[in-house]
Design a protein that fits this description.
single chain; 365 residues; mainly alpha; two-stranded antiparallel sheet; 12 helices; 68% helix
Length: 365
């Protein structure tokens, strides 16, 4: 518990102290956000707002977890787990890709950075590295960092091992690439209003913190009654999820309307990569669809808008993603953000109820 508190305190301190320092640096370098011209006209006043705030979020998570890991090493001799390193790799690598995209935008002085092809290639390479390492690297617990299959909760309902290990690895790489691409783009699409992505991500990571802690408390071999989980190093996953939630909370102080800084793709891609990696590491890839329900809605609204327009040349929404639709209907930006936070909170609560119900059912209670 002390290690968890240390991680939370350090992460919060880094964001509270580090974000205003970054704002000053970005102002000095004149690295302001460029607003898309086809977006709501009310957003044009945000042009020039400092971006790259995701740098602080990434740093806060790493330093928070690192401080906790150092405490556990010097007090108990615990060595950091590969599972934690891999999850952080997913976050930092996607965040680095986002940083390149953000940097390209401010250098070109426009709202478009990396090409779609360039971003896709980068995501494919990084996701593939994560997928392969998560299957082959040994762990302290003896349980794998990931399972070669698709899971709703804990055990795969579809295993990729049906055609041998080599095929299983290839299929798992494809599956991880899909998850990484889906969740990074989903949170990136959600990052369109002040505080929307940061607040929603905070709520989602609180959900994963609770799930990972429950898996830690009921880990196989722990001796606790009821169903137990074969998950690798869930305490580390708990601390990382908690640090991410707190980092988003601290960042929200400066990102709430009117935002003093945007997280940019550096933040949204990193948070998406972390969310995907936590779903894989906790064996809850399909439960994540519920836990990240708001992000799914945002993504689907964009897909529906584009697909329907191509077929009929008509629009379903006034503008996509759907948060812009409600803006154009006359809702104040703050009202949209708060109500969307409430929706995400309901999704997380539903996900936790399902997770706990599954544990009760499997425990025979």
């Amino acid at each position: 518990m002390i290690s968890l508190i240390i991680g939370i305190v350090v992460s919060l301190g880094v964001t509270i102290v580090g974000t205003p320092l970054l704002i000053k640096l970005v102002h000095k370098l004149n690295y302001g956000q460029y607003i898309r011209q086809d977006g709501p006209k009310s957003h044009l006043v945000k042009r020039g707002t400092p971006t790259l705030g995701g740098v602080v979020i990434n740093l806060a998570v790493v330093l928070g977890w690192g401080s906790s890991a150092l405490y556990r090493y010097f007090t108990r001799g615990d060595v950091p787990s590969w599972s934690a390193v891999l999850v952080l790799f997913a976050m930092l690598s996607m965040g680095f890709l986002g940083f390149i995209d953000d940097f390209a935008k401010v250098r070109k002085k426009q709202s478009e950075g990396l090409t779609v092809k360039g971003k896709f290639i980068g995501q494919f390479i990084l996701a593939t590295i994560y997928a392969v390492l998560s299957l082959i690297l040994p762990t302290k617990s003896g349980f794998p960092s990931a399972q070669a299959g698709m899971s709703f909760i804990e055990k795969p309902f579809f295993s990729f091992d049906f055609a041998g290990r080599a095929v299983a690895i290839v299929l798992f790489v494809i599956w991880v690439n899909f998850l990484m691409t889906a969740w990074t783009n989903a949170i990136n699409l959600t990052d369109g209003l002040d505080g929307l992505a940061a607040g929603s991500s905070m709520i989602a990571f609180i959900g994963y913190m609770i799930i990972a802690f429950w898996e830690f408390y009921h880990l196989k071999g722990s001796g606790h009654p009821g169903f137990t989980y074969a998950v690798s190093d869930p305490l580390d996953l708990t601390i990382i999820a908690a640090c991410a939630a707190v980092a988003c909370f601290g960042f929200l102080w400066y990102n709430s309307n009117p935002a003093s800084i945007f997280m940019g793709d550096t933040g949204s891609l990193a948070l998406g990569g972390l969310f995907a990696a936590l779903s894989i590491a906790t064996h809850t890839e399909f439960l994540a669809i519920i836990l990240g329900g708001l992000f799914v809605i945002e993504t689907m609204s964009d897909i529906i808008q584009v697909g329907y327009f191509k077929m009929t040349h008509k629009r379903v929404f006034k503008m996509a993603p759907i948060h812009h639709h409600f803006e154009l209907k006359g809702w104040p930006e703050v009202k949209v953000v708060i109500r969307f936070w409430m929706i995400e909170m309901l999704f997380v609560l539903l996900g936790l109820v399902i997770f706990y119900g599954d544990w009760v059912a499997r425990s025979g209670l």
